[in-house]
Design a protein that fits this description.
The protein has no helices and 10 strands. By secondary structure, it is mainly beta. It has a single domain, classed as Jelly Rolls (Sandwich), CATH 2.60.120.10. It has a 4-stranded antiparallel beta sheet with strand order 1-8-9-10, with no helix packed on it. It starts with a strand and ends in a 7-residue tail after the last strand.
Length: 100
């Protein structure tokens, strides 16, 4: 699912195969040796939702690096989901705050 973070930058490096990176700007194919970065939302309120999709018949292997900040929240622009962070009592809710 496309998502963006409030406190975590993400970096991916494709080791083998290929993935399609889907963002607000569209789609781009990344193959082995290519990388992409997704900065955390500067204001904590808006971000560029991103997603990796393997549309090939072959496995794709990639390395993902992030800082895993306990205060991080994640927003999913295409679905009714909100991640409140590892320090929250309820980690996942709908966008309106109601529980699943």
């Amino acid at each position: 699912m496309r998502h963006w973070h409030t406190h975590e930058d993400e970096f991916i490096f494709v080791l083998s195969g290929e993935v399609v990176v889907k963002t607000d700007a569209g789609e781009q194919v990344l193959s082995a040796g290519m990388c992409a970065g997704f900065p955390a939302s500067a204001d904590g309120k808006t971000g560029d939702g991103h997603q990796l999709i393997n549309r090939s018949s072959e496995p794709a292997v990639y390395l993902e690096i992030s800082n895993r900040d306990k205060a991080d929240q994640a927003f999913y622009p295409d679905v009714d989901l909100h991640f409140h962070g590892a320090s929250a009592a309820v980690m996942f809710t709908r966008k309106d705050g109601s529980k699943f």
